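Model it.
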Amino acid sequence: MIVGGFNLSALLRGCSWVRLALAAVLLGAGALSPATVTPGLQPSLLTFLFLAVATCAGAGLLPWVAGKSRRTVWLVCVLDVVLITAVVAATGIGRSLFSSMYVMSIIAACMLLPGRGGLIVASTAGGLYVSVVMGRTVMPVLAFVETPATTTALEVLTILLHAGTFLFVAIAVSALAERIRAASRELESQRKDLGNLQAFRDVIFDSVEAGLVALDRRQTITAFNHAAEEIVGVPTPQAIGRLWSTVFGPAVSVSAVEAALADAPRTPPRHELDLRRPDGSVVPVRLSFSPLRAADGTRLGILVVVENLSSLREMEARVRHADRLAMLGRMAANIAHEIRNPIASLTGAIEALTSRAVPESERERLVQIVLRESDRLNEIIKNFLEYARPAPLSITSVDVGEALDDILLLLEHRALPPGLKIVRDFPRALRWPIDAQQFRQAVWNLCLNAVDAMPEGGELRVSATVRGGRMEVQVADTGEGIAPDELGQLFEPFFSTKPDGSGLGLALVHRIVHDHDGEIDLRSEPGTGTTFTLSLPGREA
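Modeled.
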């Protein structure tokens, strides 16, 4: 039973043991003490009283007594005071050696009884002590039974000092006991709050869907929530205390992560990898690292957020599949549209040629239509096959300046609009690992589009440079520009802004750049011009 922050049953058992030990010591002291120390000693009465004290103390050690309520404590404290009074009366009253036992009883009462319990017991003890002493010395009520003892003023003062001491001890010990109880209640409250806070944190830690892993400064796992257990496939008890590399492998170096966090603490590094579980399965995960710090800013370690990317990868695959199906549908419709016109022209021309009513002068023109439409149909199919079935890359170290110069030289031999100016802005010696044939095809298509965008003339600028480990090739014109609502469809197959365009030129450029693991950037303003930027990474030839 807990009362005022104390375990009342434990205190009662402790006091019972103390009373037993004190009764045994005082009984032996009383029996062995000379008569001058214990005047008026009555051995038989003293023995009986100490046996009563021992019996009472022994009963307090019984579990069914120690577990009772405060009524049992009140009964024990009052009985102690009564028995001590009887011992004092049997061993010389005011001169009794055992009057100090009152102090022990009052201290026990102050500890066992909260509030004013100690003062009540002290007042009772003082009242009984003064009453007994006064009743047998100063105002002897048993004068007809026994001869009153002589009492000096010093002894009377001593008696009153004893009674005052009882009250002073009760006040002091009660105040101390209350402070101890208050401190104990506060500590118990703090302990419960800390326990509730820790339980709350544990609930949050395990309720997060992303895996959370805490590492100390030695790269040892110190925390591992339920989500991390499911993602990694390692039970939490087995993960705690193990090194990071033994659970997640050597793919991500924690030392490199710590260096990156030291350089940019507000930009947590992230890594994606295929994590192999203990059961042999592989799961794609994203790891995000953040510094783990105490309230005072002390670096404790690293907090790692583990995300399972399996569902995301599946969704991306479904989106790509849907995009491919949608593009396939658009390509089929566009192919049908592009082929319909040449086939219609061919059909009409052939029907006319088979007719005998067509004069010879028209036959030559009809034959030219058949040849022209056949070439057009062949060009459409050829471009489509180049886009749909790309040849594997043949990467070699190519002199990019020479290749660009050859492309522009061929362009200059075509029928160009009047006033068209071609500007070469690239170094003569720039070697880069690329597929020469496909690179020429991509730049050639961009140059043709640029020329078509400037029917009244303008400037075509072709430049090349190396920046940040990547080669950038720009094809810029000062032509008509592209409308903003057409930019999103510009690289789709068979989409063209030109009346006679096949729509495969820019789609082929996009595919070639993508095959080189490069990027293509488009900037265009209607009436100002268009700039295509091809960014190609370096690789081994």
